[in-house]
Amino acid sequence: MAADPSSGADTGADPSAGPGFDIAICGAGPVGMALAALLARRGMAPSRIDLIDAKTLAQASADPRSIALSHGSRQILEEIGAWPLPATAIHQIHVSRSGRFGRSLIDRAEHGVPALGYVTRYGDLVTALGAACDRAGIASLRPARVTDYSEIEAGLALKLQQLPQLPPLPQLPPLPLPHTGDDMPAGRTVRAAIMVQAEGGLFGDQQGKARRHDYQQTAVIAQVRSSAPLAHRAFERFTDEGPLALLPQGEEYSLVWCVRPATAQTLLALDDGAFLARLGAAFGARVGSFTHASPRLAFPLGLNADPDPRGSARSVAIGNAAQTLHPVAGQGLNLGLRDATVLARLLAHDATPAQLARFTELRRQDRRLTMRLTDTMARVFANDTPAQTLLGLSLAAIDVVAPARGLLAELMMYGRR
Length: 417
Prior knowledge:
The protein is of the alpha+beta class. It has 10 helices and 21 strands. A hairpin with a 5-residue loop joins strand 6 and strand 7. Helix 1 (30-41) runs parallel beside helix 7 (332-347) and helix 7 packs antiparallel against helix 8 (353-380). The two termini are 34 Å apart.
C-alpha cells in the first residue's frame, strides 16, 4: 500500500512547521489498520490519518500464523469491508480437563449466530484490512519506525527512523501547531494531534507495565492433522502445565499448546513422530490419532497491561500495545478490535485529549473483565491442587446450566458490552 498523496511527513528539523495529521497510528497490524478504516468509515477525512509500520504490507501478508476471530470481530470486519476472507468457522467449542472430571460444550445453535468464531491466517487478515485501507485512501508510511516523539502545544512531533523502501514524501497543507522551542534532531518527522500506539510485540520483548505476570509457560504452535477430525469443532483442553487448544482450519488444526519452558524445549527437539505421540497422550483420542505436524514455533507467555493505556494526554495504546494476554480462550486480538471500535467512534469527529480520557473510562470494564478471565484460567487450571475438583464441578455446572454457558459464550463472542 503506497503512501497517499496527502501524507503529512516532512524532512525538516522543526516539528512545529509543515504538514501534519489528526491521527498517527504507530503499528499497521490488524488492530491499527482496523482503527484507520473505522475512523474513515465514521467520517474522518482519510487524508488526516496516517499508518506507520516497520513492515511492508507484502511482508505482513506473508505471515502464516493462525489467529482466532470472534463473531463480534467478524461484525467489525464486515463494517469496514474486510470480510469475507479465507477462514474456517467454529460451530462448537469443547472445553475439558486432561485426566479429570468436568467438561462443557458451547454450541452456536444456542446463540443464534452463524458461528461462534473463525480461524484464519494472520496474513489473510492483514491483506483484507490493507485492501480496505487502500480503498479508503488512507496514507501509509512503510517501512518506517517511530523512535521518539515530542509534545508541542497542540499536538505531537514524531521522529521516524527511515527504513528501506520508504515511499517518497508528498505534501499536505500545514496544521496550525505552534513551535514551543522543543527541537527535534534533524531528520524526518510526522506531526499529529493524536498518536495511537498499536504495535505491541511479544510478551518476552515488551517493557514491563503496571501489571505484569510471567506465567512460566511457553506456547508451542504448529499445524497438525488427525485421522478423524470433527468439522468446525474447536477444543480447549486444560492440562497440569497449561491449556492445549486445537482450532479447526481447513483440513487441519491450528495447535496452541501451552507448557512449561523446559517441556517446550523438549517438544521442539522431538522428531515429528515423537511429537505427535506426546500430543496424542496429552489431548486424547477425540479426533483420532495425530498424523502430521508442520514445523513448530514457540514464544513465552505473560500478562502485561496498564490500567490506563494513555502514554500522555495526546497518546494512547490499544490492542496488544495496551494489554498482552495469555492466549487461552483466544481473546487478545478480539479485545484489541473492540478497543479500535470504541476509539474510532470517539475520535472520528473530535481528535482531542478529552476523548482519549473518555476512551479509558469506556474500555475499563471490558479490559478488566477479559484480563481477569484469561488470567484466572491460565493460573488456576494449570496446576495440580485440590482446587481442581471444584474447577471440574464448575465446568460440569456450566455445561448443564444454560444461563452460565450463555454468559461465557457472550463474553467470548462480544466481550463486556
